[in-house]
Amino acid sequence: MRTWLALAVAMAAWGQETPPDVAQGKRIFDAQCALCHGVGGKGGRGPGLARPKLKNAADDAALRKVIEQGIPGTEMPGAWQLHPREAAGVAAYVRSLGTVAPEALPGDPSRGARVYQAQACAACHIVQGKGGGFGPELTEIGARRSAAYLRESLVSPAAAAPDYFLWVEAITADSRKIRGIRLNEDSFTIQLKDAGQAFHSLRKDSLKELRRLFEESPMPSYEKMLSSTELDDLVAYLASLKGKS
Ligand code: HEC
Ligand code: HEC
Beta-carbon neighbour count of residue 55 at 10 Å? Predict the structure, then answer.
C-alpha cells in the first residue's frame, strides 16, 4: 500500500514540469529586454509589459513563442538563443509584471485627438486608414511604444526614429540636393521618397555624396509648439491607439 502511494506521488511529480525559475527570468530580462521594455517592463522603445493582457501573447505558449521567435516584421527581435527553461523563466517573469497597476497618464485622450487634428499630424501619418503615408502609420502606435517614448517622438523626433527609418541626403553630379526617406537600397542604387511624396531612384556612382542624416528628422519637434497640457493630451491620445481590439 505504502509503496503504491510513494509510486503514485513520484509519477505525479515526474509528469509535472519543474516550475519556471522567475529569478533567472528577471536576470535575463534585465540583460536582454529592459533595453527596449524598460526596467520592470515599464516600457521604452518597446511597449510597457506591466499589463495583465498582452496583445501578441494571450497565453503562456504564445508568450514563449514571442520571446523565442520575436514578432516578424516589427522591431521585436527573436532568436535569443535561450534554453526553453530560460524562456519559460522570462515568460513567468513577464507575467508577474502584469499584476502591477498600469501607469496612469496625466493627459486626456479625447482632447489629444483634437490636438492631433489641429496640428495636422494626418498630413504625414495614417490612423485607421485616414491621412498621409509619409511618416509611419500610427493606428497601433500605443501598442508598440511606451508613453515615454511617444513623448520623446514628439519632442525630439530624430532621437526617437524607428529602426527601419532612414532620412538621407543625396547630392547629384550637378549639385542638386535631394532629401528623402530611404525606401530601398542595393549596391548600385538607392530609392528615396521626398517630403513632397516624389519618388527618386538614384545610381550611387552618379552621386557626389550620400549621407544618412541621423541627427535630423523631417518631422518637426512639437516641444515649443504645444503647451505642456497639450503635449500630455496628445501623448494620452497616441497611447490609446491600439489598433483593432
Ligand atoms: C530592440 C528592442 C527590443 C528588445 C531587445 C526586446 N523587445 Fe520585445 N518588443 C519590442 C517592440 C518594438 C515590440 C512591439 C512590436 C510591435 O507590435 O510592433 C515588442 C513586443 C514585445 C511583446 C509583445 C507585447 C504585446 O503587447 O503583445 C513581448 C511579450 C515582448 N516584446 C517581450 C520581450 C522580451 C521578453 C524580450 C527579451 C527577451 C524583448 N521583448 C526584447 C522591442 C524589443
Ligand atoms: C512632415 C511630416 C510629419 C508631420 C507633420 C508629423 N510627423 Fe510624426 N513622423 C514623421 C516621420 C517621417 C517620422 C519617422 C521619423 C522619425 O521618427 O523621426 C515620424 C515619427 C512619428 C512618431 C514615432 C513613430 C514610431 O513608430 O516610433 C510618432 C508617434 C509621430 N511621428 C507622431 C506625430 C504627431 C502626433 C504629429 C502631429 C503633432 C506628427 N507626428 C507630425 C513625419 C511627420
Answer: 15
CATH architecture of 14-97: Orthogonal Bundle (1.10)
Q: Whose CA is nearest to atom 27 of ligand 2?
A: 162
Of ligand 1's atoms, which has the minimum distance to the CA of residue 75?
12
Round to whole Å and give the CA distance between 101 and 52. 9
pLDDT in tens, 150-171: 999 999 998 888 877 889 999 9
Pick the atom of ligand 2 nearest to 217's CA. Answer: 18
Which CATH number is 109-155+221-239's, of 2.10.25.10, 1.10.3470.10, 3.40.50.300, 1.10.760.10?
Answer: 1.10.760.10
Global pTM value: 0.77
Grid-cell match 487634428, residue found: 117
